[in-house]
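Narrative of accomplishments. A recurring question from our advisory board has been how the design workflow behaves on a single, concrete structure rather than in aggregate. To address it, we present the structure tokens for one chain from the evaluation set, followed by the sequence designed for it. No filtering or post-editing was applied between the two.
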């Protein structure tokens, strides 16, 4: 059987019931790697975190390949499958995943490995395409909803109205999140949405009451 025939059989009929050979293993790992690399680039494209975690993205590829290898091994021998189930049951992962989208990509990677390992790479491909459409659809729907945090140090708390007036000139959305007042001046944090961050900072620095101002990207969204 040629490589093309083997490839077609893997997608159309699956290789779960066939004997585990070197060709089957290579086909399983190859299909899994192709889908995992695809997941890698999709995650890199839609990632909205302030700091892109390349290590996490690489781990998605590795997890998918390892999962497919485990599933492929389990179905080849009942004794080995029982041993692996027992070994994996004692594994504990303590790394917290804060972003729900990261959790979705992690589950996507594991699912792709399981499906490919079970011999249904075609299902994994179709499912991945549908997941991609959903991700891009919702990403486009909520595109541009990210906010920033403006931190301003002023001379006194009586200057707040003047500062907020300047903020409203350049922001579609503004909301004061924190306000600290002391004898030496006032510090305030304002959540804003603006398409002109440089102009905003320049306008604030022209105010005599403003000592300094800075913008920090915020990962949260507003409706």
């Amino acid at each position: 059987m040629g490589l093309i025939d083997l490839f077609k059989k893997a997608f159309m009929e699956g290789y779960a019931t066939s004997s585990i050979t070197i060709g089957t293993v290579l086909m399983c790992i190859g299909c899994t790697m192709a889908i995992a690399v695809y997941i890698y680039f999709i995650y890199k494209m839609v990632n909205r975190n302030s700091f892109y975690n390349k290590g996490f993205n690489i781990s998605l590829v590795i997890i998918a390949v390892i999962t497919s290898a485990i599933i492929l091994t389990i179905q080849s021998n009942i004794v080995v499958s029982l041993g692996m189930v027992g070994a994996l049951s004692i594994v504990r992962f303590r790394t917290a995943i804060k972003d729900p989208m990261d959790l979705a990509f992690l589950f996507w990677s594991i699912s792709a490995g399981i499906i490919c390992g079970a011999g249904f790479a075609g299902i994994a491909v179709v499912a991945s395409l549908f997941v991609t459409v959903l991700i891009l659809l919702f990403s486009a729907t909520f595109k541009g909803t990210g906010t920033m945090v403006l931190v301003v140090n002023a001379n006194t708390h009586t200057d707040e109205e003047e500062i907020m007036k300047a903020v409203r000139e350049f922001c579609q959305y503004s909301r004061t999140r924190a306000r600290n007042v002391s004898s030496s001046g006032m510090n305030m944090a304002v959540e804003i949405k603006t398409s002109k961050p440089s102009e905003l900072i320049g306008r604030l620095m022209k105010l005599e009451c403003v000592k300094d101002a800075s913008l920090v990207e915020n990962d949260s969204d507003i409706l």
